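JOB MANIFEST
job_type = single_chain_structure
chain_count = 1
residues = 88
[input]
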Amino acid sequence: MNEADVLDIGRQAIFTLVMTILPVMGVALVVGLLISLFQALTQIQEMTLTFAPKLVAVFLTVALALPYMLSNLIELAQSLVARIPQLS
């Protein structure tokens, strides 16, 4: 295993991480922006108003995207296990 292999594995792992977490972060971003816009328009400054909807939205997104997220992680693990014979 040389430096190029290590960099390739790192790149693949980071790409998989980003693609796995992207749906959750996107939903949290959109919900946060909508709640902030609502608070700015109505001048309601309640902290629980920002926290509770984001928590529910992220939980539902994780529940719905879990098969996609697991398939990404399983694919990464399988590709890493397939590289083991080439390490020697």
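[summary]
Residues 3-42 form the longest helix (40 residues).
The chain has a mean pLDDT of 92.
exit_status = 0
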